[in-house]
Write a structure and sequence with these properties.
heterotrimer, A alpha+beta (about 800), B mainly beta (about 350), C alpha/beta (about 220), B: about 350 residues, mainly beta, AttH-like fold, 13-stranded antiparallel beta sheet, ten-stranded antiparallel beta sheet, 1 helix, about 55% strand, globular, C: about 220 residues, alpha/beta, Rossmann fold, about 35% helix
Chain lengths: ~800, ~350, ~220
């Protein structure tokens, strides 16, 4: 019997291939977008994990000097006191415009890294003498190999796939030459298995700070918010995709009511039917989910390079641009497809199981359905209030997302009620009978369309919100770049001595030479970069202060005050008037806070003499040069020639800005792509909902046709209705989108990145989006309308047939 | 296997010295390193210090000790030098690699530790005058090797000992030129076997004051061993009558190579040529998954020597990156006494 | 003559004939009952008269207008202005109130007369139900609304397809009485499809359709 029932149920899909396709596409889209995001996240996390393993990060306690490198003699002293420590010297070098991290470890004492093990176990292990003595060997990734090989003056290169991207691993003796840091150690790692009796660190190296392995800021933590962001978008896309599934399953069930009735009359129990239908849904979910995984895989592959670029640019996170199929996101994708299918079909399935054996189609009880909308609306309001309360009570990034989610879900729930109120208003003010009918009929359609409209609302709000955020950010960022990058030329010399020579050479020919010097301090709040500045009008006029006290620049220059960046100010809640403990012996009053985008760490600015106190050996190799813009190119050329500087060492302002903007744009490529996809999915949801409603539309339309409207008029009205509903939804989405933008700019960004951005409005973008929405709604309604237009009267007459 | 393992293998492999034997297949040339010559004249104190132009060198000290608790103990303190290139340089660029091994053996347990460093930065090295050999906090230090302070630490053991030489340096082979194979590979090899020792052992259960005798071996060379030699058994034996004997056997596929030095109580040495000393394993014990001979019969008919040499504890396994057996032994038979045994290649 | 069927032929899409050579006429103010078995073609005849469908051959003339000459908008306009329909399934517009349903056709036709509508509501006993929606009415009430909607436009011709087919006896009688009295009062002609001889007997004329032909 079961086989017969399955055949009967399956026959539906044979007869409704388009419907089957729609269902599978909906499932595939939902699963695909979700899986893509999950795949990207999984890949990124795997990259971080791999990098941590490959470099043994976060496995050992570390010793850091609070303001600069550790002299090699300190390492030897610790060793001779019995402390089992290993020296690490790391830093960036630029090779053909690309920044590459050099990690120099003492190959004799450092724990075995996978890349080294791999190299030694290879068929042709290099001679240790070559590894440890000049010129040494460089180990790097396959991607970086060609770049290094093409470079003269570098040691021979070995390739390993057990290294994170953009990294050169080498012996510390080679690294100190490459980095020009002879006799310096960046930090020490404390090896396991210390001898029984060693003197306390406070006695032999009191100036070093011990940073416990678990306290080390790892990439996963740093990028957590970014991935949370992506996940939230993935979930939104998934939810929107489910609307399609809901629509199609609803339609299929409605169309199969007759068959189900017949099957039950023939003695098939409802229990068996429900099980079989659930099995059927599972099969469909797995097929659609699998398609979605394939889609997600390619989508992730397409998006990952940009995500990787963003993460590297923003956090310096080591991530490669290659996606690989990993079971965790594939399985989670399938589980989401199954769960989502049942979530979307639950209502239809429930209604089906409650259907009496004998029941007529009956008059659609739309009004009772519509009247339930105010209960849903109350739930919606509760969701919004709950979200806001969560933020007020708990705070933090997760609470921020809870608020945004509450706001979005709540508004979606309120939407049907709000729309019906608007429609009642329009209906009341309508004059002609057709107008009156159109408005009232739209209300009647609402329950069937409300889910699709909710999807549209969410997609639109997300578009407006994220679009406003990105555009606001771009505008702010551009303005900020103009303030920050004020020097016409930026010069980086090879050595401090050359730096002094360049500064002297320039001093007679330019308006100002502004040294850019900094030192990384191990601050209680995390790494803190301390910059020193000299007194110059450039700072006084241009520096982007978002909060300042009186005489801010005078106080910074005379050494009594400090400026901090916004990240530090917000994270530590430090504002003008309060004090910042820079080192145990130096505490200064905060005179101002400046905005500092695209940088995860804390920063502070003091006068140059103050910097020299803290870090007398801070490099003096970088300079900003103020000169008449017209002379910049000529001067850059002269500098390169005079000091034999490589092209990259002298950069013009415009180039710096272009590079910064490029990084910025890449940051939001994924967000924009997901946005557009979500909108597309919402459009598709409207189409499926309209197709679902189609069977219920004829009884509404036929009487009006009989009363004297042509099919052309009716088809036109169908289009108009869909466009009107979309337009109304779009109008309601606007305030929601702006609220979302506000939340993103003022709550999420502050929590995730540590900066707050001013919000700008972009009405032209809204108009464009509205146009796009109306177009999508018109396209979605075009198919049913065209059907109506071509429908023979006989089909309409069937509505009136006495035997139905 | 990491760089360190790799270095140790290198260290123990390349040079053609008795203790570094057992690993065939490494090239036969000394690649710019100086090779030992038969007519060498030792210069002290310089020769107590390092010889970077030779590939390998060590300061190898063992001691048989008696605790105030009445128990027997043994300690080992070794500093190996291995040169990647035949010179020294400042800083990380130094091609001189140093490795320390320390061990403490009780009748029922064997403790050991290992250290690695490179030269040039001051973390490890040897100076001749005043004499100091060190790696990290481990050291052998004194004005000259005749009176030194010796110290080493591991995670669960340590020792701090005063060593005083009660006799002269002794030179093995032909005035310190010690031949290691029938093919003529050789090293420079002298010893100070007359140390009196006193000091403290640090054990998990507490400190133990000890006294006893110590034996320092100094050896350096650049030559690999014969290709067929797979390992060695090396004995330093101190008899109760004051005589001492250093003897070793290099196990070869074709034939074994043996050599020994008989040292009388006043330091007079007699080199004993290949084939005169006989070594016969009597009992093996399963140590670290291998069958290790822990009881031997050693005979030297010309000296009426016929003794049984047995390990204080069979478990004196050095599970360092390059593994070997090294521990104190008891002597019985025609002569009685104490000594140290080293076995590699099992 | 208000309606003239002249040798009308109509087939189902499959080609099976429904009406064969049917000729029939109906004068102004006249009431005509069309009876026949299920599938005899009586509803098809009614739909053709209502300009909801088109003939295969022959001609239908309504108030001097040949329907075959009309295009789709023309037929729609005719439905709006010249005739009204009452169906077995009532076919009210569910999203509009009773009041709005009542006046809907008249307003479509552009001849809305609020007084007449009020009168109709009163006469149909719907005055208290004006604010309600069709789903809250009984079948009899719904059909009264449908009749009121049809008569509000003061049609020349009322077409009714089994108007009491879904109603019980009492409601059926009330509805029929109301319809006939309104038709009489307004002078509209009535073409009523029924299978009930009793109902047919209350009309001026009666024709029987069998196998697509008039008997």
């Amino acid at each position: 019997m079961t086989m017969a029932v399955i055949q009967a149920l399956a026959s539906h899909w044979r007869a409704h291939r388009l419907q089957l396709m729609t269902l599978l596409v909906g499932l595939a889209l939902a699963t695909g977008l979700w899986s893509a995001v999950q795949a990207i996240n999984a890949e990124a996390r795997a990259s971080y994990g791999r990098a941590a393993d490959q470099l043994a990060l976060g496995q050992f306690d570390e010793l850091h000097h609070p303001n600069g490198p550790i002299p090699l003699s300190r390492y030897v002293e610790l060793r001779r006191a019995g402390w089992q420590v290993a020296a690490v010297l790391e830093g960036p070098i630029r090779i053909q415009g690309q920044t590459v991290r050099v990690l120099g470890v003492d190959m004799v004492a450092y724990p075995a890294l996978p890349a080294i093990t791999q190299m030694e176990q290879s068929g042709t292990p290099p001679d240790p003498a070559d590894m440890l003595t000049a010129p040494g060997l460089l180990l790097t990734t396959p991607a970086l190999g060609p770049l290094l090989n093409g470079q003269t003056g570098l040691p021979p290169v070995l390739i390993s796939d057990a290294l994170p991207p953009d990294l050169i691993l080498t012996d510390i003796g080679v690294a100190e030459v490459l980095l020009n840091q002879s006799g310096k150690v960046s930090h020490l790692i404390i090896l396991p298995d210390q001898p029984g009796a060693v003197p306390p660190l406070t006695d032999i190296a009191p100036e070093l700070d011990r940073i416990l392995a678990r306290e080390q800021l790892d990439t996963a933590q740093l990028t957590h918010s970014f991935h949370l962001n992506l996940s939230a978008f993935g979930l939104l896309s998934f939810a929107v995709g489910l609307f399609i599934v809901h629509g199609t399953v609803g339609l299929a069930f409605a169309q199969r009511r007759g068959m189900i009735r017949t099957l039950r009359a023939l003695g098939v129990s409802m229990r068996r039917l429900v099980w079989l239908i659930m099995a059927e849904l599972s099969v469909l979910a797995i097929i659609g989910g699998t398609l979605g995984l394939v889609l997600g895989f390619f989508l992730a592959g397409a998006l990952l390079p940009d995500v990787a670029a963003t993460l590297r640019g923003l956090y310096g996170a080591p991530i490669s641009g290659q996606i690989s199929l990993q079971p965790q996101w594939a399985l989670s994708g399938l589980a989401m497809a199954l769960g989502g299918t049942f979530l979307a079909s639950g209502h239809a399935l429930y209604r089906l199981s409650r259907m009496p054996v004998l029941s007529g189609a009956g008059l659609q009880a739309w009004r009772s359905a519509a009247s339930g909308s105010w209960i849903v609306a109350i739930a919606g309001v509760a969701a919004i209030v709950g979200g806001i309360l969560a933020l007020l009570l708990f705070g933090g990034l997760v609470a921020g997302f809870v608020m945004v989610a509450g706001m979005l879900v709540g508004s979606a729930l309120v939407l049907p009620y709000a729309l019906s109120l608007v429609l009642i208003l329009f209906q009341r003010s309508a004059k002609g009978p057709i107008a009156q009918w159109v408005w009232s009929d739209m209300r009647a359609q609402l329950p069937g369309l409300s889910l699709a409209l909710m999807a549209l609302l969410l997609a639109l709000a997300a578009n407006i919100g994220v679009g406003t955020m990105v555009s606001s950010f771009r505008l702010t960022f551009t303005g900020w770049l103009d303030q920050r990058l004020t020097s016409e030329l930026y010069v980086t010399t090879a050595t401090d001595q050359q730096g002094r020579d360049v500064a002297e050479w320039l001093s007679f020919q330019v308006d100002a030479v502004l040294p850019i010097r900094s030192v990384e301090l191990a601050h209680s709040s995390g790494p803190l970069f301390l910059y020193g500045i000299i007194d110059d009008q450039t700072y006084r006029e241009k520096w982007p202060l978002i909060s300042a006290s009186d005489g801010v620049w005078d106080r910074v220059i005379d050494g009594t005050a400090v400026l901090v960046n916004e990240q530090l100010a917000r994270r530590e809640n430090l504002w003008p008037g309060q004090s910042l403990v820079i080192t145990p012996t130096l505490t200064l009053t905060i005179a101002g806070v400046y905005s500092d985008y695209g940088n995860p760490t804390g920063q502070a600015i003091v006068s140059m003499p103050r910097l020299d106190e803290v870090a007398p050996n801070a490099e003096a190799r970088r300079f900003g040069i103020r000169v008449a813009p017209g002379r910049a190119t000529e001067l850059a050329q002269a500098l390169r020639e005079e000091f034999d500087l490589p092209p990259r060492a002298v950069v013009q302002q415009a180039v710096m800005k272009a590079q910064s903007m490029a990084v910025f744009e890449k940051t939001f490529v994924v967000t924009s792509a997901l946005n557009i996809l979500t909108l597309g999915v919402a459009g598709f949801a409207i189409l499926t909902s309209l197709l679902t409603l189609w069977t219920q539309r004829l009884p509404q339309i036929a009487p009006v046709w009989a009363l004297g409207l042509t099919r052309t008029e009716l088809a036109r009205l169908e289009l108009l209705r869909s466009v009107l509903l979309a337009a109304l939804t779009a109008v309601l989405a606007l305030p929601l989108g702006l609220a979302l933008a506000w939340a993103l700019l003022s709550v999420i960004n502050v929590e995730a990145f540590g900066w707050k951005l001013p919000m700008y409005l972009f009405p032209l973008d809204w108009a464009y989006l509205l146009g796009l929405t109306l177009l999508a709604a018109a396209i979605a309604a075009a198919l049913p309308a065209a059907r109506l237009l071509r429908m023979p009267p006989a089909d309409l007459l069937k509505v009136f047939a006495n035997e139905r | 296997m990491n760089v360190r393992t790799w270095l140790i293998v290198l260290l123990l492999l390349i040079p053609g010295l008795s203790r570094a034997q057992g690993y065939a297949g490494l090239g036969g040339s000394a690649e710019g390193f100086t090779v030992p010559q038969p007519d060498y004249t030792f210069q002290f104190p310089q020769d107590h210090g390092p010889h970077p132009e030779y590939r390998i060198e060590w300061w190898y000290l063992t001691a048989n000790l008696k605790g105030e608790d009445g128990r027997d103990y043994g300690i080992q303190w070794t500093l190996f030098r291995s040169a990647l290139k035949p010179h020294e340089a400042e800083g990380w660029q130094s091609p001189q690699i140093w490795m320390g091994h320390a061990a403490l053996t009780t009748p029922d347990k064997h403790y050991f530790a290992e250290r690695l460093s490179r030269g040039g930065i001051g973390q490890a090295g040897v100076t001749a005058e005043p004499f100091e050999a060190w790696i990290d906090e481990w050291h052998m230090r004194g004005d000259d090797p005749s009176a030194v302070n010796l110290s080493a630490n591991g995670a669960d053991f340590g020792y701090d000992l005063q060593l005083t030489a009660k006799g002269p340096l002794v030179f093995h082979g032909q005035n310190g030129y010690s031949v290691k194979s029938a093919d003529g590979q050789a090293s420079y090899y002298y010893s100070q076997p007359f140390y009196e020792v006193q000091g403290l052992l640090r054990l998990p259960d507490g400190d133990v004051p000890v006294t006893g005798q110590g034996w320092l071996d100094r050896e350096w060379s650049s030559q690999p061993l014969a290709a067929d030699q797979s390992g060695w058994d090396w004995f330093s034996l101190s008899f109760d009558d004051g005589d001492k004997m250093m003897a070793f056997r290099l196990r070869g596929e074709r034939s074994d190579f043996t050599a020994a030095t008989w040292i009388t109580a006043d330091g007079t040495t007699t080199a004993i040529p290949d084939g005169e000393v006989a070594f016969e394993p009597l009992t093996t014990s399963l140590v670290a998954g291998r069958d290790i001979p822990v009881r031997w019969r050693v005979t030297l008919p010309t000296r009426d020597l016929d003794v049984e040499v047995s390990a204080l504890t069979p478990d004196a396994w050095m599970a360092t990156r390059f593994e070997y057996w090294e521990g104190p032994v008891q002597i019985s038979g025609s002569h009685s006494g104490r000594g140290y045994l080293e076995m590699t290649g099992y | 003559m208000l309606v003239i069927f002249d040798k009308v032929q109509k087939s189902y899409p499959g080609g099976r004939p429904v009406l064969r050579d049917v000729s029939l006429s109906l004068d102004r103010g006249q009431t005509l009952a069309l009876t026949g078995e299920s599938g005899s073609g009586k509803s098809t005849l009614l739909n053709l008269a209502a300009a909801l469908d088109t003939v295969d051959s022959g001609e239908i003339t309504l108030d001097g207008t040949a329907l075959s000459k009309l295009d789709d908008p023309g037929r729609a306009s005719l439905r709006r202005k010249s005739l009204s329909l009452v169906f077995q399934q009532f076919n009210l517009i569910p999203s509009l109130t009773v009041d709005q349903n009542l006046s809907f056709h008249a307003r479509l036709a552009g001849c809305h007369d609020p007084d007449w509508c009020a009168h109709l509501a009163d006469r149909m006993g719907l005055s208290d139900l004006l604010a309600r929606y069709p789903e809250n009415l009984s079948g009899g009430q719904q059909q009264r609304v449908a009749i009121g909607r049809a008569m509000a436009a003061r049609p020349k011709l009322l077409l009714a397809d089994e108007p009491t087919g879904n109603l019980d006896e009492t409601a059926s009688a009330t509805v029929l009485d109301l319809m006939l009295s309104l038709v009489a009062d307004t002078g509209a002609a009535l073409l009523l499809v029924t299978h009930s001889h009793e109902i047919a007997s209350r009309l001026d004329r009666r024709v029987h359709l069998a196998g697509g032909q008039l008997a």
